[in-house]
Each structure stands twice: as structure tokens, then as C-alpha cells.
Amino acid sequence: MSHVLKTVLTGWFIMVITYGIVLLGVARSLEMLYKTPLDLSQTTSVIILGMCLLTVPYLVAGVYGRLNMNGDLQIFLLFMIVPVVLERVFIYGLGAFLAKDVPVIEFIQLDIAPYFTFSYIIAGLGSMAIALIVAKTW
């Protein structure tokens, strides 16, 4: 396996782990804060969770990119585009698979990922920008 491919795959693995830790950590923190099970119908909870998922994994990716991509912008952009697109496709695909008589986006927002809105989908571009800024200026 080439060094570049190994570096990119390792970076994606780190992003997935970071995403999971942020998801569980923020959800648990919100439960402790409100002293109730996480209520994803609460707008504040959804905004906090969505913002954390849009920033923290990509900050980590930016640092990883800075340390391991040797300033190669093409590899770094590929490194960032693939997880942003795949995450959104995965969530939508899961919703499409599980939704019965409900529109897919509505089902996703009610049962899987309430932060999954059109704004969240588009904000992936901002997430890539955050990672790029961190990678170039860290």
C-alpha cells in the first residue's frame, strides 16, 4: 500500500473515531446538562450537536493534514471531500432504507439525525474550509 493511501486511510479512521467520540460525548453532556435523556426535539440540543459535529472532527482532520500531508493540497482536498460526502450519503441511505411511509428527510430528522438538514448538508463545505485553514496555518 502506498504511503499516501495509508496516510489518507489513517486520517479517515481518526476522523470517524473523533466523530463518534464527539457524537457520544456531546449527547451525554446534553443529557447531564438537562438532567433528562437527550431530547432531540429540543432545538438547542440539535444545534449544539450539529455544530460540534461540523467543527471538531474537521479541526482534528486539519491538524492531521498539517502533520502528515506535507502541504499537498490535492491530496488534502481529496482527504476532506470523501468523508464529507460519504457521511451525508450514509445518513441519507440509512434513512432511505429504514423509512417506510414517511419522506426520507423527515424520517431522518425524527429518528436518526435531527441535525441532518439542508443547512447541515451545505455546511460540509464550511467544515472542509475549517480543516483547510487549520492545516495551512497551524
Task: Give an overview of the whole structure.
This protein is an all-alpha fold and 138 residues long. 82% of the residues lie in helices and 0% in strands. It is built from five helices and no strands. It has helices at 3-34, 43-68, 73-98, 104-112, 118-137. α1 runs antiparallel to α2 and α3 runs antiparallel to α5. The protein is globular and about 45 Å long. 25% of the residues are buried. Keywords: Membrane, Transmembrane, Transmembrane helix. The chain crosses the membrane at residues 7-26, 46-64, 76-95, 115-135.
Structural class: mainly alpha
Can you count the helices?
5
| pLDDT averaged over residues | 86
User: C-alpha Rg, in Å?
Assistant: 16 Å
Q: Please outline the major beta sheet.
A: none
Q: In sequence order, what are the helices and strands, one letter per element?
A: HHHHH
Amount of helix? over 70%
Assess the beta-strand content as a share of residues: under 5%
Let me know the number of strands. Answer: 0
Q: Return residue spans where pLDDT drops below 50 for at least 5 consecutive residues.
A: none
Shape: globular
* N-to-C CA distance: 28 Å
SSE topology sketch:
Blueprint: H1 3-34, H2 43-68, H3 73-98, H4 104-112, H5 118-137
Helix pairs in contact: 1-2, 1-3, 2-5, 3-4, 3-5
